[in-house]
Amino acid sequence: MAGPISLPLYEKLPQKNTVQRVLDVTIFVLLLTLLAYRILSLKSNGFSWFFALLCESWFTFVWVVILSSKWNPVVYRTYPERLLFWIDELPPVDMFVTTADPTLEPPIITVNTVLSLLAFDYPANKLACYVSDDGCSPLTFYALLEASKFAKLWVPFCKKYGIHTRAPFRYFYDEEESPHDNSTEFIREYTKMKDEYEVLRRKIEDATEKSIPCDLSSEEFVAFSDIERRNHPSIIKVILENKEGLVDGLPHLIYVSREKCPKYPHHYKAGALNVLTRVSGAMTNAPFILNVDCDMYANNSQIVFHAMCLLLGCKKGQDFAFAQSPQIFYDGLKDDPLGNQLVATQKYIGEGISGLQGPYYSGTGCFHRRKVLYGLWPDGCMETGGRSPNCVAGKLTDEGLRQSFGHSREFSKTVERILSGLSGKADCPYDLSSSAEAANQVADCGYECGTSWGTKIGWIYGSTSEDVLTGLKIHARGWRSAECKPDPPAFLGCAPSGGPASLTQQKRWVTGLLEILFSKNNPFIATLTAKLQFRQCLAYMYILSWGLRWIPELCYIALPAYCIIANSHFLPKVEEPAFLILAALFAIYNLHSLLEYCRIGLSIRTWWNNQRMGRIITMTAWFFGFLNVILKLLGLFEAVFEVTQKNQSSASGDDNHKDAGRFTFNESPIFVPATTLVLVHLVAMVKALLNLTHGRHESRIGEVICNVWVLLCFLPFLKGLFKKGKYGIPSSTICKSAALAAVFVHLCERVSIA
């Protein structure tokens, strides 16, 4: 910005949380008291007591991590109206949309996301939208081509009437989005626009049903003829180009399908984003980048201004590397029955780590500084370090640029402009056609060989959770980040609506997080050797340890059943004073978490659904995520990026997902551990009732209460034992679980006899 800004663009507002802190500390003190009691009474108790001590030690560590992460909550208030005085000096922004499979991610979803981005309230000559199609699908390209025609009507309509929701499927079919203008002119244009969108939707849906969506012999589609999805040259096509640089025109729209070859790894989403970074650098080279998933449409047309307030309003030396918007979902199922909306977690953990170095990078809805992705440190040095022979005073030489960023001279020039603080390309307005050769060169599958892409610059490879790893590496260089939470929310996406899809997503997350934890990118190493703050390290441990939590939780959940079957105990008797420690801990923890949910307007049922799904996810998705990583470390398995099925229930105006929210099953082994636990606890319950019937009181009341609590948490599995179809657990899963449960019960009985 050329002139000084007299008023701040944002405010950092610490949040009061006195009651929350008191309850957090009370729980921590009770945990320490419990551990002390366990240790002091260890000699007079047996095996189960020792196991309980180990599990509770882990729970105490996790609580310390949570306590540290939540202790200093902060929110940022932005003032986008203050940027309007510098509208001509605002920086350009390149927007990335990634899609990988037209079957799992229907093109109509991608189209709506792209249309919402093209309609941003930001100078159109400063925006460029790049769509990465990793499926190399002519259907996706066809959908974007048709959408570009509709965009010429849709974008002016949105800006003329100040439409708030700029994804057509939400605007036309959401009951809450009724026409806000009763004038004859508006109603006429509204009706015309809705009809035009219906035509677009039908065209895309008709093309989806065909084996070949369009005539591949035509000039526009000839590049898609005779290609294989995993073995094809790069395809880059400019669909829309704002050649005149009109402020009120349409942004650039570029389709990118990177080259793929079996002998080169493509690194999934991280690889696709790195290709987009290079292609956009060669073509428009905006100093800021927005990346969104194909299902995450822009819900706030002013979001670019909000993000720029954070990224341009920093004091010198305290720049934010990226501004992350929380993931929020549209058509969220009432009471969050699958526990995947993460509202409370994003509220309390998200605001808490905003008071440290800043929020994690969550892979979508994030605005980046391009120079940070290029490996720049806050002090202006490059990731390669000042002692490198290719660096002079911490800056890369021409040879160093080529070694780090690749051999394209044209692209190296654009990198140099970004690293030197210059915005965009030298020739504005952009002539995208003149950059086509360089763009295709940097999209080659072998371009990254021998460079720093994926290791020190761009999105980092080595984990299927490339987003968290990339954010961790950025924080480790000493950068900070900010959470961007405007009202209305910046972006809205769709959450998985069934049990298998939700668990598959969780398994992929945990696999990637454990890959980070068991690598040289471990946050503790970054704290010792780089500039990651210790409390930010603990904040990363909160999510990186998800995949380890199944071990202590499985042991702790199995203890009540073990003690009932083996006539042992891991809890003090009800009449003993020590029982009050556990009772108080159980009551205060659950009351505390319930108050957190109620404080942000969530229902008691939502709280309970999240509690039970927390246990289910740990025993299923997180368990198998851990196994995946162990097998990978042993060289027996290679983690893959599993694309989650995307649905768009509002696209046709009715609810096509009658099963949404109901827990469904399939024959995946992911359901075996939880089913086994339910069967074991049912056996323990029968044993406890028999003991009570025969007047034997070996089964203590504490263990029985825990047994009932576990069955309540796994109620969907308990019901699934007696249901049919997809709502019932498959017989093959029940047989496997029954065999494992029988082995566990037999071992417990042998311990009891011994």
From TrEMBL:
High-level lineage: Eukaryota, Viridiplantae, Streptophyta, Embryophyta, Tracheophyta
Keyword Transmembrane part of the UniProt annotation: yes
Stated name of the protein: Cellulose synthase-like protein H1
Stretches that traverse the bilayer: 21-40, 46-67, 577-595, 616-637, 670-692, 704-722
Domain of life: Eukaryota
Entry keyword annotation includes Acetylation: no
Keywords: Cell wall biogenesis/degradation, Glycosyltransferase, Membrane, Transferase, Transmembrane, Transmembrane helix
Subcellular location: Endomembrane system
